[in-house]
Specification:
The protein is mainly α. The chain has a single domain, classed as Non-ribosomal Peptide Synthetase Peptidyl Carrier Protein, Chain A (Orthogonal Bundle), CATH 1.10.1200. Helix content is about 50%, strand content about 0%. The protein has helices spanning about 10-20, 25-30, 35-40, 45-60, 75-80. The longest helix has 15 residues, at about 45-60. It is globular and about 30 Å long. It comes from Nocardia speluncae. This is Acyl carrier protein.
């Protein structure tokens, strides 16, 4: 696991925190872990890049453009963050 991420719950919480500002609190907390983030929250490319930067900063993990397909849902983001890079 990466620095600051000690559990699946920590990773999922970081993902939801990183989405703040793109939707309301209720929309973010109500998201199913398997819903596609970009289409569900209507994230454009700049919004998605901001989200990725927040994930990277919050986890202390480098996230490259090649990793973006692994960041499609809350579940896949969580898995990405807890998997050793």
């Amino acid at each position: 696991m990466t620095a600051g991420i000690t559990s699946r719950a920590d990773a999922a919480a970081l993902v939801r925190r990183s989405l703040q500002g793109f939707a309301t609190y209720d929309e973010i907390t109500g998201l199913d872990e398997h819903q596609p983030l970009r289409s569900t929250l209507e994230l454009d490319s700049i919004d998605f890049l901001t989200f990725v930067e927040r994930l990277a900063a919050g986890s202390g993990r480098r996230i490259d453009e090649d990793d973006y397909p692994r960041l499609a849902t809350i579940e896949s983001c969580t898995e990405f963050l807890i998997t050793p890079g």
